UniProtKB/TrEMBL annotation:
Protein name in UniProt: Uncharacterized protein
The organism's place on the tree of life at top rank: Bacteria
InterPro entries in the cross-refs: Imm32 (IPR029083)
Protein source organism: Glycomyces paridis
């Protein structure tokens, strides 16, 4: 059964919001945290040095950004154990990107 979870909302109440639906696979202890990418996903992760410091830059087409959002929502769902992670390595991205590791830490700092 599909379960919908609504979290948060705008802080100022003056801006219009839009609901976006992204499907995720529910967490199962026998499979762990599992996600998938859209077929035409393009995503790169790089560390860029500027005179004022470093930035992590994520560039992607719409499918890539939706796929990244799915990965994050998969980790954020109820039931995903603390320290669950999804690792996007260079080979899974464009072959030249930095590795990106996303991890749930709940409660924060543990």
């Amino acid at each position: 059964m599909e379960q919908e979870q609504v979290v948060g909302g705008p802080r100022d109440g003056e801006r219009e919001t839009r609901d976006i639906r992204i499907q995720i696979w529910p967490y199962r202890s026998d499979m762990g945290v599992v996600s998938w990418w859209e077929s035409d996903t393009r995503l790169t992760v790089s560390v860029v040095d500027y005179s004022f410091g470093r930035e992590i830059e994520i560039q992607g087409n719409r499918a890539g950004l939706i796929s990244l959002a799915r990965d994050l929502l998969t980790l954020a769902q109820e039931g995903a154990p603390n320290k669950s992670d999804i690792l996007l390595d260079s080979d899974g991205l464009d072959g030249e990107s930095e590795t990106l590791r996303m991890m749930v830490c709940e409660p924060w700092g543990q």
